[in-house]
Amino acid sequence: MQKNGTTRTLQTVKDADGTVTSRVRRTVLPSGLRIVTEDMAGARSASIGVWVNVGSRDETPALHGCSHFLEHLLFKGTPERSAMEISVALDAVGGEFNAFTSKEYTVFHARVLDEDLGTAVDVLGDMVTASTITPFDVEAERDVILDEIAMHDDDPDDVVHNLFAHQAWGDSPLGRPIAGTEASITAMTRAQIHRFYRRHYRPDNMVVAVAGNVDHASVVRQVTKAFGRNDFLTGDATPTTPVQTEKARKVQPGEARTVRPLEQVNLVLGVKGLTRTDPRRYALGVLNTALGGGTSSRMFQEVREHRGLAYSVYSFASHHADAGIVGVSVGCLPGKYDAVLETVRGELAKVAAEGLTEEEVERGKGQLKGGLVLGLEDSGSRMSRIGKAELVYDELLTIDEVVGRIEAVTLEDVSALARELFTQPEMLAVVGPAAAAAG
Amino acid sequence: MQKNGTTRTLQTVKDADGTVTSRVRRTVLPSGLRIVTEDMAGARSASIGVWVNVGSRDETPALHGCSHFLEHLLFKGTPERSAMEISVALDAVGGEFNAFTSKEYTVFHARVLDEDLGTAVDVLGDMVTASTITPFDVEAERDVILDEIAMHDDDPDDVVHNLFAHQAWGDSPLGRPIAGTEASITAMTRAQIHRFYRRHYRPDNMVVAVAGNVDHASVVRQVTKAFGRNDFLTGDATPTTPVQTEKARKVQPGEARTVRPLEQVNLVLGVKGLTRTDPRRYALGVLNTALGGGTSSRMFQEVREHRGLAYSVYSFASHHADAGIVGVSVGCLPGKYDAVLETVRGELAKVAAEGLTEEEVERGKGQLKGGLVLGLEDSGSRMSRIGKAELVYDELLTIDEVVGRIEAVTLEDVSALARELFTQPEMLAVVGPAAAAAG
């Protein structure tokens, strides 16, 4: 590997006149840190994301919630900057600046005017590589996290989706809530969190993605400088390659119920889905769209339009490296619970038995393709596209390739998939007042 | 007035080379319907919004929730299209398509690829001008609305903000929740809703705003055709001019509490604010930003960073034609309630007594200006900017004019405003478990 890393152009997009409208380039530094950029003609903003390959599924029971706790702590200061100085640096330029933790990765991101990108890179590089994590900060932030857990616990939608994941994957890391529990957060020590930080925040486990009005070479220079603090980029390494499997891990069928004195009953009904790299995921995209992805979808039409059973009803498909779930989520008045459940089960059985219509497949494809193109105008979505692909997929498809895969989906593909998925044993999670939630 | 209406260019923006990058134009049709467009160089999408000058504050007690009920019903069909056909038309092209009702206006909006704008205009024109509102649809949608009210009632944040507005403005239209109540929605008849529709959905009470890769003249043609159904555009009228006042109406100081068995206590503490056209609103923007608008703000630093009292803490300023409120919103664990209240009150008293620092004012201005420019990349925000200005303001400022007004704010302006606002008697709304909420 060369001293300054290896650089490659991954994608070039031209418009009808042959003008280059976007170019995706990647540099792998000797330390294994990957930098991907997309320059967008005409953009005035730049979005940056630092993608770290760690999330709640990497946690032992004693460390449950550690990835998310750590995400908070990285905002608390470095030898160079206090928490206030970190905040000030980006607030002063009007940037949007935040972070999130998922089951599989942690992302720190900012959107700024192009001339302020250098500031954003410098602050993020400092935070991510040189956080001090003082005992005082751990204690103050522990209280903040306990409050955040209480807030999620007061949100019926969060409660029912966490319950559904727990039904599916049990007490395994995938089945646990990302933020941890009151017990795990209360017990976690500064030493445990700090070891977790050192183990996972390594250059070969990280991707810096930038999209907007940017120049790749200058981003590489800025990142090399900002992340080069304290010898963070010293040493040679090969980036961690995601371990992918096409077969989704088992789920645990059955019902889980939590009684809460709410006005509504919230329920999620679903089955085992597909992994992130399963080639049938494009067919699942079409199926999910037709089933519950818009106001013309079967669930919306049947549950809300025709029968007035609920305000919020949609289907979803979530994907992980080695697991996936597919389901329908509804909130309804307790008196409508039985009718909702019967309607949702009826629609799932019907699509399993009869598949979709040709018209639904075409509409679903149009909806997916339109959403894809509409999502490309904004530098934040482009940053997410290239950052996530680099971190968790084996490949970055061009937009044309994605459109091609959507177009290649046939009625038979979708109907076969619907039959396979929705004849599996179901999982049900219910949160609400006693009468409905008691089953 | 001419047969085809009067057209005027309101704003032209050029880049450094003199190339026009955006142009805002307005046409007023003889019927009083206003069409404003902004063509954005380089955009591939188009956003359209139909802005109707009606909201919950236009409702008598018997019609409480009617604007929002009506917003739902307009999706249910016309002589030309069923509810399903309305949904299909936009789902098929992948557009985002939705609506919302506020206290003062109702907006139907879509974002589509530029080539699909004609479809969006046609569907929206059909829905808004020719809705059939059948008795069957009223009954099915009544159930959906009752469920939506229950959903809001399970959301602690919605509950506390509704309680705060009720404390401020009592049983007046501004003090009531937008969606109505179970009683008002249950009692409302189809005839009442239909009369409300005919009274408020008139061309002179409506603005069609479009931004993106669009041509003004062709938008005017499309709108004239789509909204010309059933003689909707017949007759001459002058657009309804918003009635603005600079003096905000009185609020009712005091405390309101609702006991709920939640994990968190949610509280909103605030005072009377400014109207939408008050010239001091730019100073209030800076004050609000410094007080609780970002992670470097006083509330975030004091409540969350230094003391770990809460996860979510922010300040807000809401404006109406003749009213306004300013406040701080926090969710915390019950054991921290007293400390939160003391801290928030202490910070408000401090800013009233001492004002801000020069550095905070500069940072606040930078944050407002940065946010403004970052918000201009997307056709949806531009559509909202011109649509809302046309409907509810007397004037559409250029971005440079807005930046100029932000820059003109002085430390003295902000400090004087802080003193005036935060020495007024306070209003407090609290939702949470008995111990804290009982006061």
Give a verbal description of the structure:
Chains A, B: One of its GO terms (molecular function) is metal ion binding. Chains A, B: Belongs to the peptidase M16 family. Chains A, B: Residues 34-181 form the Peptidase M16 N-terminal domain. Chains A, B: Pfam families: Peptidase_M16 (PF00675), Peptidase_M16_C (PF05193). The structure is a homodimer of 439-residue chains. With 439 residues, the first copy, chain A, is of the alpha+beta class. Chain A is 43% helix and 21% strand. The first copy, chain A, contains 16 helices and twelve strands. In chain A, strand 2 (20-28) and strand 3 (34-40) form a beta hairpin. The termini of chain A are far apart. The mean pLDDT of chain A is 94. At the A-B interface, helix 2, strand 6, helix 4, helix 10 and helix 12 of A face helix 2, strand 6, helix 4, helix 10 and helix 12 of B.
